[in-house]
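COMPLEX REQUEST
Ligand: S-adenosyl-L-homocysteine
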Amino acid sequence: MIKMKNIKDYNLEELKKEMQEIGEKPFRAEQIFKWLYQEKVKSFDEMTNLSLELRKKLEEKYNICNFKIIKKQESKDGTIKYLFDVLDGNAIETVLMSYHHGYSICISSQIGCKMGCKFCASTGINFARNLTSGEIVEQLLAVEQDTGVRISNIVFMGIGEPLDNYENVVNSIRIINNPKGLNIGARHISISTSGLVPKIYKLSEENIPCTLSISLHATNNKKRSEMMPVNNTYPIEELIQACKDYIAKTNRRISFEYALAKDNNDNLEDAKELVKLLKGMLCHVNLIPINKIEKGKFDKSSNENIMKFRDYLNDHGIVATIRRELGSDIDAACGQLRRKNLKE
Ligand code: SAH
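STATUS: Structure written out below.
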């Protein structure tokens, strides 16, 4: 059987072209967009302002990818972790977090991850494939349909390296951004990367004013390469240069993520080096208490060290905050998400 195209993979312009190709007027694309992303329907049948004939045609040509919930876990703090069946035998995790300013969703960009960061649970398992743009968007739709909440912020911090699935991630943002689509502004979207330098340059040219988060985690190449093999390909100097270029081109503040591991990267010498590295940049540092993973060699820093580290940065002109840990009791906190097979 020919695998049908997922209607959610198209941005609005592409869907207009697609409609023309099947002999329909381009405005049909706007109607379909509205049904999918504003009314959040799950079938062509529900698109009642389209003729029965057109609905049948759409049914024959496209599928509406509706993820199935395999498992749903709720944390004491209100965080919800979903394990979704992506309909081809694979599964991914998505997390909904509730903050006083609204709901945030942490989405996956790939099924597995190739980056090999030593402290992260998404690594060390087989990489299956990239998610399509429609599958990236579907995580949001499925969670909104299940909970009835309206999501206001999106972070690409689930499973995978978003810049390693560049085209689909950028296209999913175009669907999410579109006022006729999900209508969530780029300023409410963060892309987190382990530091794929050429893609950072590329992203700065896209005219998508999202927040770029850089997983830095160490201030010299020796330490960073030990934690993140990607540093062997794109060392710190090249990464920082790409960040400076990104800031100059977009005028957007970069967020540096720094996961503190006991006796590894959490002493005042590290904080001093970090100040030197980031001095004068339009940036913010997000300190993450590292979550120890199974067989992982990195332990969480003490609260005292974390606070000292933050205070040192703040006292020396670098704005730093400690990330609130959400969902740790259901393995939904930073770095705990894993690709899970349906068989598990
Ligand atoms: N691949 C992307 C996005 C996924 S990870 C990236 O590397 O940025 C999202 C964030 O969680 C990254 O900053 C990542 O380094 C961090 N992280 C991964 N494992 C962690 C752990 N065990 N404890 C704390 N943070 C972790």
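REMARKS: The two ends are 28 Å apart (CA to CA). The mean pLDDT is 94.
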